[in-house]
């Protein structure tokens, strides 16, 4: 076959090219491992595909899909559970030149349907439950011409994946695409506003592979456990083995830590990626049992702000040679910045607790970040009048090869999020932050979560909440607002740790008194005069960590969550 090493900088580039390259380079190495069940002794029984097997399976799918009509440019809704089939199907679609659409099912059925209707897929490859919804809620799927069921058809027409595979033949030469051709549409989680379809080009995926390898020094002899399904696709491109975890990726806060720990030990996992909600549970489980995850080289935690306290607990279960990393970015740009846990604990966390924000590190080259004045409207071009100096808090903007250019069929959102800069463009992260004198980026909260008082003071969520989170009985806090900008009153919601919720008026009064003692010692929070206790914060579905402060603001203004 003599596959050349893929280079995303070439004019012609298809992200699928990594798979045949790896299959030729190391055909017998395990590519994907899946926990299929347990044997009679209760041990996990794993099944797997080598890189050669995965490439052949992918070719059969690609050939079958191509014969069916799913070809270059065909927008294809892919809703399949994490599995051997998911990875093979994703690369099969890349090989045909089709454009897979990935939507987080955890955002709820109506939100998913809105995404589907907005992107108008021409094909659907999904589990039976999705096809059942498609048959009943036909208006949302009115654009669909091709249907493939991963499983058995119930009461609808269309092919099954088994039939696609049966009629497909290997090898299948992937379709030639330009690096700038559409590769996929990935929807944001909707946790920071309406979910939007991020249009990825093949070259952008290639750049992500290169920058991930550059930032984290991934090697081909490593084993990954991805807590976020999409990351498994990068493992294949990086030549890393991937063990799919036994968990529901839409409910990371409910993960069984015993199963995650078991997989890491069984497979000798060296790298793993997941949200803070996952590692909060795994760290407690391991530390309570004095379990050391000795094979781990690094753990990547992302999706929501990561506390120094959590980093400390995670590092406790790792060997001294391992570390935690907290990549900063978004669906539209990842990895943008990086910092290791050791630096956070030594340089960042002591300042974070005093309200400096969260240290997210320096940009991964050749990415660049800047800070501009905060505005809620579009920014047509970048010029000196809106640029801020080091230390000044504003909106974070970013540019680089991993930064996406547009939202699919959403010109309004694209115009609001992108800034022209000659032949270049910048993406508005929607986050507030600043760059310090050392060139490190600090995150201060979402721009839309700022509170502007009539006196002209601006409160940023992460900075203020850090003060209240220092109380030993506080699990987490959230800054909310009563009223509209620029005449808002700051209100802080407190979610106590388990067993610490005040049960009597006297306990509540004493708790609030202690909280105010902390807050009055900081200029950031000295004039916050209202605290509300809440049993559980409203949080996002994907990471179970991003707080819906808009709902809390509505509650503070007299509404309900």
How would you describe the overall organization of this protein?
The longest helix has 18 residues. Helix 11 runs antiparallel to helix 12. The chain has 16 helices and 27 strands. With 561 residues, it is α/β, with parallel strands linked by helices. Among the domains are: 153 residues, Rossmann fold, CATH 3.40.50.980; 100 residues, GMP Synthetase, Chain A, domain 3.
Outline:
The protein is an alpha/beta fold and 561 residues long. Helix content is 31%, strand content 24%.
Note the topology:
Elements: H1 18-25, E1 30-38, E2 44-50, H2 51-68, E3 75-79, H3 84-96, E4 99-102, H4 109-119, E5 123-126, H5 128-136, E6 146-149, E7 159-160, H6 161-167, E8 182-187, E9 197-201, H7 202-216, E10 223-226, H8 231-238, E11 241-243, H9 257-267, E12 271-274, H10 276-288, E13 298-301, H11 308-316, E14 323-325, E15 328-330, E16 333-338, H12 341-352, E17 358-363, E18 368-372, E19 394-399, H13 411-417, E20 418-421, E21 424-435, E22 441-446, E23 451-452, E24 458-459, H14 461-469, E25 474-482, E26 489-496, H15 505-519, E27 531-533, H16 549-556
Parallel strand pairs: 1-11, 3-4, 3-5, 4-8, 5-6, 6-7, 10-11, 10-12, 12-13, 13-14, 26-27
Antiparallel strand pairs: 1-2, 8-9, 15-16, 16-17, 17-22, 18-19, 19-21, 20-21, 21-22, 23-24, 25-26
Helix pairs in contact: 1-2, 2-3, 2-6, 9-10, 10-11, 11-12
């Amino acid at each position: 076959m003599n596959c050349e090493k893929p280079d995303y900088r070439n004019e012609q580039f298809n992200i699928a090219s990594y798979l045949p390259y790896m299959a030729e380079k190391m055909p017998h190495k395990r590519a994907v491992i899946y926990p299929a069940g347990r044997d009679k002794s209760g041990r996990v029984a794993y099944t797997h595909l080598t890189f050669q097997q995965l490439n052949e399976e992918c070719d059969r799918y690609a050939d079958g899909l191509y014969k069916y009509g799913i070809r270059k440019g065909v927008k294809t809704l892919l809703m399949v559970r994490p599995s051997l089939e998911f990875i093979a199907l994703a690369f099969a679609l890349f090989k045909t030149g089709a454009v897979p659409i990935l939507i987080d099912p955890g955002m709820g059925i109506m939100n998913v349907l809105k995404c589907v209707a907005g992107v108008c897929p021409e094909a659907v490859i999904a589990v039976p439950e999705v096809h059942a919804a498609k048959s009943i809620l036909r208006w949302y799927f009115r654009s669909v011409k091709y249907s493939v069921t991963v499983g058995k058809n119930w009461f609808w027409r269309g092919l099954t994946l088994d039939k696609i595979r049966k009629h497909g033949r290997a090898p299948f030469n992937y379709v030639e695409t330009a690096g700038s051709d559409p590769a996929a549409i990935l929807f944001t989680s909707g946790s920071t506003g309406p979910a939007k379809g991020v249009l990825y080009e093949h070259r952008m995926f290639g750049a992500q592979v290169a920058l991930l390898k550059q930032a984290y020094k991934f090697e081909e002899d490593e084993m990954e456990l991805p807590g976020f399904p999409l990351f498994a696709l990068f493992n294949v491109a990086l030549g890393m083995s991937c063990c799919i975890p036994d968990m529901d990726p839409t409910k990371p806060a409910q993960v069984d830590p015993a199963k995650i720990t078991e997989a890491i030990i069984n497979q000798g996992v060296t790298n793993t990626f997941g949200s803070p909600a996952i590692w909060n549970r795994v760290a407690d489980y391991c530390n309570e049992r004095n379990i050391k995850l000795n094979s781990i080289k690094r753990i990547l935690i992302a999706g929501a702000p990561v506390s120094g306290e959590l980093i400390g607990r995670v590092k406790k279960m790792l060997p001294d040679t391992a570390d935690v990393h907290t990549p900063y970015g978004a669906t539209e740009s990842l990895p943008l910045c990086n910092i290791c846990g050791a630096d956070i604990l030594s340089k960042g966390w002591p300042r974070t607790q005093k309200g400096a924000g969260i240290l997210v590190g320096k940009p991964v080259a050749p990415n660049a970040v800047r800070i501009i004045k905060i505005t809620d409207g579009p920014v047509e071009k970048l010029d000196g009048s809106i640029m801020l100096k080091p230390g000044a808090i504003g909106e974070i903007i970013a540019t680089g090869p991993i930064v996406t250019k547009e939202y699919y069929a959403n010109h309004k959102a694209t115009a609001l999020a992108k800034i022209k800069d000659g032949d270049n463009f910048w993406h508005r992260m929607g986050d507030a932050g600043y760059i310090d004198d050392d060139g490190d980026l600090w995150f201060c909260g979402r721009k839309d979560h700022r509170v502007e008082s009539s006196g002209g003071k601006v409160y940023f969520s992460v900075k203020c909440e850090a003060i209240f989170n220092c109380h030993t009985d506080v699990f987490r806090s959230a800054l909310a607002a009563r009223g509209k900008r620029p005449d808002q009153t700051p209100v802080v919601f407190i979610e106590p740790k388990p067993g610490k919720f005040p049960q009597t008026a006297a306990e509540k009064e004493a708790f609030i008194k202690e909280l105010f003692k902390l807050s009055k010692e900081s200029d950031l929070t000295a004039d916050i005069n209202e605290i509300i206790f809440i049993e559980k914060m409203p949080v996002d579905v994907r990471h179970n960590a991003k707080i819906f402060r808009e709902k809390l603001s509505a509650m503070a203004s007299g509404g309900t969550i």
